[in-house]
Amino acid sequence: MGLGMGLNLLLLLAMVSTNILSLYHLSSSIQAGKPTTPPPVPDHLLHQLTTIRATINHLRSTATPTPATATATTTAPSDLLLYSHISPIGSACHRHPDLLHRYMNYTPYSLCPSDLPLAESLLLRGCHPLPRRRCFSPSPSSSQLGPNDLKALSSSSNNFFSFTSELDLTIPQLLQIAKSSSSLLRLALDIGAGSGTFAAQVKPYNVTVLSTTMNLGFPFNEAAAMRGVVPLHIPLQQRLPILDGVVDLVRCGHAVNRWIPVVELEFLLYDVDRVLRGGGYLWLDRFFSKGVDLEKTYAPLIGKLGYKRVKWATATKTDSNGFNKNGEVYLTALLQKPAALVRPPKS
Questions:
Q1: For residues 324 and 316, is the Cβ–Cβ distance under 8 A?
Q2: DSSP per residue over 317-347, as a string?
Q3: What's the pTM?
Q4: Beta bridge partners of 111
Q5: Rounded to whole angstroms, how far apart are CA atoms 211 and 221?
Q6: Phi then psi for 248, rounded to 5 degrees?
Q7: How far is residue 251 CA from its own chain's centroid?
């Protein structure tokens, strides 16, 4: 029984006892037929009332604060507080009323405003607003991509078939690794997929790839769609819209790197673990960070998954002039999720 219920019960008991005493005195007066001095209250009743009053006073002094006070003194679990700030849920919208007001300021029953950058600003801040339900989506008559853009996309397609360093993992190598372990690749997810190059190149091998991508100044989603790739317009912190344990391969492209806060990266990795089936693969394709951070932070973070290392290659990251800034390194890792349902935690 809770403390509040116990206190209410004691108050009720005190009220009943008081009423009993009043009836006792009243009945004594009526029986006498004249107002006389009531007989003394029995000692055992006085003792009970004294005990009840003392208990009530003690409970009042130690009672739990009211809900209004409790909100100021009670601390929620740290993980819950953190998740409420970075998770892409609707409640995050209230922290950005200016952006949300601009997004929802449109003329009903007309064309919707063409302001994708504004929508992506909300998405990146964890606010997924409801769609504009009373305006018509504009249908552009021509593609936003020019001839040069399409040529650039075509020239980048050879990246997954050439092997120039240990950081490379070609599509034929990937398929051979899966075949050697009797693991089929049928359904894959490409996180931070850009224009969907990986999905387009692996499609002839009967592998269906869903690609998460944002535009961020370039029509990556449109480019992926033109190549016959399914683009998922979601940010990195979005919970993957996929059922548990159904994906054979998850690839994390260049968008997944040290710029992501460590806690968000951890959430991402565990969501990847959620959608991967037992025996499936996680491919970190050229994840870059400082060398010291890879050793002290990211390698242990990845190791907590308990995956088998099929490939783990590192190399110095250099810019276009051949210089290494801030001691950064690349990591290419292919990791296989254990088939067992329960895995011991990694220290």
A1: yes
A2: ---TTS---TTEEEEEEEEE--SSS--PPP-
A3: 0.68
A4: 136
A5: 9
A6: -90, -30
A7: 19
